[in-house]
Amino acid sequence: MQFFFEVLIGGLLSGVMYSLVALGFVLIYKASGVFNFAQGSMVFFAALTFVGLLEKGLGFWLALPATLAVMIVLGLVIERIVLRPLINQPQITLFMATIGLSFFIEGLAQLMWGANVRGLELGIQDEPLQWVSDVAGVNVSKFDLVAAGIAAVLVSTLAIFFSRTRIGRALRAVADDHQAALAVGIPLQQIWGIVWAVAGAVALVAGLLWGARNGVQFALTFVALKALPVLILGGFESIPGAVVGGLIVGASEKLAEVYVGPYVGGGIEGWFPYVLALLFLLVRPEGLFGEKIIRRI
Amino acid sequence: MFYREAGQYKTTYEADSAIFPIRQERFAFWTFLVIAFVVVPLTASPYLFSAILIPFLILALAAIGLNILTGYAGQLSLGSAAFMAVGAFASYNFVLRVPGIPLLVAFGCGGLSAAAVGILFGLPSLRIRGFYLAVATLAAQFFIVWCLTKIGWFTNYSASGVITAQALVILGYTFDTPRAKYLLVLTIVALMALAAKNMARSNTGRKWMAVRDMDVAAEVIGIRLMSSKLLAFAVSSFYCGVAGALYAYAYLGTVEPEAYNLDLSFRILFMIIIGGMGTILGSFLGAAFIVLTPILLNIFVHTFAQSLPSSVSSNLEPMVFGGMIIYFLVVEPHGLARLWQIGKEKLRLWPFPH
Amino acid sequence: MMRHKSVAVWLASAALGTAVAFGATAAVADEQFIPLLSYRVGAYASGGTGIFGGYIDYMNMINQRDGGINGVKLTWEECETEYNTARGVECYERLKNKGALGASMVMPLSTGITYSLIDRVATDKIPLVTIGYGRTDASDGRVFPYVFPMLTNYWSQNTTKIKFIGMREGGMDKLKGKKIVNLYIDIPYGKETIPVLDAQAKKYGFIVTHIPFTAPGNDQQSQWLQIRQIKPDWVILRGYGVNVPVAIKTAAKSGFPRDHMVGVWWSGSEEDTIPAGDAAKGYIAAGFNVAGTNYPVIKDIQKYVYAKNLGNMEDKSRVGSIYYNRGVVYGIITVEAIRKAQEKYGKKTLSGEQVRWGLENLNLDDKHLKQLGAEGFLPALKMSCADHEGSGLAKFQQWDGKQWKVITDWITPDRELVRPMIEQSAAEYAKEKNLTLRDCSKEG
Q1: How confident is the model at residue C23 (pLDDT cuts 50, 70, 90)?
Q2: Interface contact A281, partner B, CB < 8 A
Q3: In this structure, are C143 and C162 located in the same domain?
Q4: For residue C69, which phi and psi values (nearest 5 degrees)?
Q5: Do the beta carbons of residue B305 and residue B352 sit within 8 Å?
Q6: In a domain? residue A80
Q7: Which residues in chain B are closer than 8 Å to C14, comparing Cβ atoms?
Q8: pTM assigned to the model
């Protein structure tokens, strides 16, 4: 039973890490209907830029705002150069454009900072909490707990931003209906610029945490693949959905791998979340918190 | 002035419903076929055959497959490479385990196996739409490759999980030179492309397009969604399956399941988006763009930018490639096939302004 | 419509440029051409830049210091494969006929590309040299005349690992009843060693559990939870790229001692341990080359190449790293095989077929290695018609938090166990492909 809880808790905490990446996807999809495949590359770019600046001799507290500024500028530039000319195009064209964008960003990141693999220490040790091990016999990583805390802060900030501020309300209006929002005088392009900038900032947070966990290297772009089942489980438009979806995916894939994996040869984590999400979608085609679309002629 | 239909009267229904109703187009088409079947085999170098033309044709076939599903029937899929893998591994096993089976029949059986798997993974499309479906097809991508890696039977229990495609022998003739392989692939691809073109113009194709444009409306006018969608999945997977078998037999030779990874699925999707969704021509143009551009960029960079350190030039390639994708989409969101269309319309009047 | 016009202009100029590029082929006498199927972008770029950097620097050093191999200059051209099989095949086809007599040999540095080239190199008569990777059963030169998985293959490597563990446990008989976990990446490369591990488990009486993780392996929580439950004595790690630091970090997280983790050589470089930070201290990996700049061969590279600012590495601190030195090993084998072939065919440009003879008759003993300034840098090597592996020795190294320290001498593989398995597997391949075995007693 102890072991079961350890797997469960480990899974839930991994799930939080997936949610962090999924959050960036949700933000942009919500506001502009773009399925931004370049989010994974942005995570990589952010982490690499941060580490690169550290190597250049900037201190932690100087590199952080500098990278944040770079990410915000990147988001604004993407909005201006890539998305604005493609307004009103089919979703799949926009999706394709973001794939092109991901190639560009990956090349740019390695061009600027080289292909070296780097370590990133945030000063939080990735080791079990001693007293929990002693009392309950369950290993819970300090780092994962801190990451979960950061994710909680991020999600609440975003939630408050969306529901309490003027920009947030405008954003929700845009998400509901572009044209109606334009008609009541909401500056659409400005709003989209803000969303992309915020997505850049979220990518930075995800990049730092994943970078500290795995090392800063190209494979950070692959974390996007972990975020996709989270997205369809939670719904593309829902911030709480990203969090809940992350928790479900994290916990279930770990439980499946540990308890089912050995019987079928293992390595099922790669597809299990997708199949789970697929079965789930058969019941709720718009995900857990996605908006129900009513179809009519 | 060179491209005018003036004076060409259609006096029969057959003439009116021909694939190429205009004389110039027929002429261009036949010229093109002569070039592909006669001029190219006589002039091209082995490098062109085995490194560019063969993969181009095979991937164009896979792109036609995906185009049937996504471009015509409107069902987004990110699992094309997995269906290619099914085709390849099924063909391998048919040849291995059924003594005396003709190779083309084995390819056909491989395609049918892929179609069966395609129908299975197409079932969710009855409930799920758009990007939700796209991400759900990733389940097929990961699950199928996992199965092929895990289940030893598929790879004839090879320790490392790779298969070596048997020799290409058809009717006693061994296709072993790059030129022979090219001609074989070209024939298969040309016939299947023709079939796809005709399917798209037929009742079936029109049903698919109705489903694509609005499935609720299609249902109202009496199109059965289930059979149309599943048929699209089956036909599409069949095309991908045959392409996958050719990819193993005529191109790579020895393959691991990993050769049919997500990356390949994405590249096939790029082909149809860049080439043009819902056009057969677009599948070829897109395949040419995606196959050739990285190679040309590589040659370019090595020829004209030798002074750059190789780490810089290597990273410039994906940047330019990504930039070009964005540029093309901004310039022509409907793909290269649309550019071709625009070009033809211009030619009707050229050189006169009106 | 201006936009469409600019597209047309762009396409036209692209076509023109290509014509120029295809037309320009150089033909110069007395040069030995080496195609380089390198990768400097993508997930494995850190490995690619290091290895190809070392490879190029060594060949450059030979050109600078000795004026080539007996006066025959080495030339090379890089082609970016992105570690992608299709791109690799295209690169091979593009480069195989460059140079006066075509490519001397090809080293794809990717298992997928290697598989796809096996048939092609036999037709083109170009040796395919895969040092420390590739198809294991190709070590049987009778079936695979043009494939050279040199120095050591994965199965030999695996037996040295078990021997190393036996040494640590105080004797091979102590292995009885010990629990060993084989943690591997779930692709053909990762799966290769399962049969040989099972055979050894039977032989020595230890219990082996195979636990796969899904590629790319950037989250291994569940695998390490399983390991924690099994409580093994040793964990053998078989990964490449991001999954290695992740494995090390997750091991630390679940409290498994790193000095009981043994990685394959693709899991044992600075690029694997630095991202894992302090957690990597004590981690052990096999290697067929060592790290460090304290060898005459590296000193020569610094003197003849870097001092003249001709070095390939952008980050000069990586000179002497595991991957860089591995590239130097590749260079040494390339150059020595050509030198050997020149003994028979004369000091001029040689074809791939002639270089193949050089590879098959290569004999680098310790004395020879000392002359090259590489004593202890790579194991001694003796190739033959039947044996395309030639050595099989491996050293073990441990990460001390700053650098890799060699902790054993060369350990010999268990050839009695491995060789019959290789011959059986190769024979099955020959049967499937209807190949007749070469008779090695007739080869000169």
Answers
A1: very low
A2: yes
A3: no
A4: -90, 105
A5: no
A6: yes
A7: 296
A8: 0.90
Tokens of A149: 């805390």
Of the candidates A51, A58, A38, the one whose C-alpha atom is nearest the C-alpha of residue A116 is A51
In chain C, the number of structural domains is 2
Q: What number is the average pLDDT over the span C71-93? A: 90
What's the confidence (pLDDT) of residue B1? Answer: 60
C192 and B51: CB-CB below 8 Å? no
**Is C157 at the interface with chain B, CB within 8 A?**
no
Same domain? For C232 and C123 the reply is: no
Q: Using N-to-C axis directions, what is the helix angle for B54-66 and B178-201, rounded to 10°? A: 20
Q: Amino acid identity, residue B283?
A: S
Which residue in chain A has the smallest CA separation from C245?
Answer: A214
**By three-state DSSP, how is residue C287 classified?**
strand
Asked whether the beta carbons of residue A281 and residue B333 sit closer than 8 angstroms, the reply is no
Which residue range is the domain that position A217 belongs to? 2-117+150-283
Q: Which residues of B touch C92 (CB under 8 A)?
A: 51
Chain B residues closer than 8 Å to C24 by CB: 303
pLDDT tier for residue A71 given thresholds of 50, 70 and 90: very high
pLDDT above 90 as % of chain C: 51
| C397 touches C405 (CB < 8 A) | yes
Residue A124 lies in a domain: no
pLDDT tier, C29 (very low <50, low <70, confident <90, very high otherwise):
low
Query: Of A97, A107, A270, which has the smallest distance from its Cβ to B146's Cβ?
Result: A270
Residue C354, C-beta contacts closer than 8 angstroms, at least 6 positions apart: C341, C344, C345
Residue A276 is part of a domain; what is its CATH number?
Answer: 1.10.3470
SS3 labels along C398-422? EECCCCEEECCCCECCCHHHHHHHH
CB < 8 Å from A in window 326-345 of B:
326, 329-330, 333
Split into its structural domains, chain A has a count of: 1
C106 located within any domain: yes
pLDDT tens per residue, range C129-160: 999 888 888 899 999 999 999 988 889 999 99
Express each pLDDT in A26-65 by its tens digit.
888 888 788 888 999 999 999 999 999 998 888 889 999 9
According to DSSP, the β-strands at C179-185 and C147-148 are: unpaired
Unique residue bearing structure tokens 């779930």? C186
CATH number of domain containing C66: 3.40.50.2300
| Residues A32-67 as b or e (16 or more Cβ within 10 Å = b) | bebbbbbbbbbbbbbbbbbbbbbeeebeeeebbeeb
Q: How far is C407 from chain B (nearest CA, A)?
A: 31
Token pair for residue B325? Answer: 């994708």
Predicted complex ipTM: 0.88
Q: Which residues of chain B have pLDDT under 50?
A: none
pLDDT digits (tens, 9 = 90+) for C307-333: 988 888 888 888 999 999 999 999 999
Q: Is residue A141 part of a domain?
A: no
Average pLDDT of chain A is: 86
